[in-house]
Amino acid sequence: MNFEVISYLEQMTPSTPIDAESLLARARAVRRIPKGVRLNDRLLRDFRVGF
Predict the structure, then answer these.
(1) What is the spatial distance between Cα 46 and Cα 42, in angstroms, rounded to a whole number?
(2) N vs C: which end of the chain shows fewer Cβ within 10 Å?
(3) Helix (H, G, I), strand (E, B) or coil at 16
(4) Domains of the chain by residue range
């Protein structure tokens, strides 16, 4: 029964390709935030849209 549920969920949830290089670049950009800079909604939104 578990296999049937997993199979059904796989069919119902479309997979979205991920650009690994873009994701890594954004993660590296977040790490470069200097000390003293406070993360706020605007900064996080800018990171989400890719600057």
Answers:
(1) 6
(2) N
(3) coil
(4) 20-50
Q: Give the span between the Cα atoms of 23 and 50, in whole angstroms.
A: 10
C-beta of residue 36 within 8 angstroms of C-beta of residue 30: no
What's the pTM value of the predicted model, to 2 decimals? 0.40
Residues of the chain with pLDDT under 70: 50-51
Q: CA 49 to CA 16: how far, in whole Å?
A: 17
Distances in Å between the Cα of 23 and the Cα atoms of 7, 14, 29, 35 are 28, 20, 10, 22
Number of H helices, E strands in the chain: 3, 0
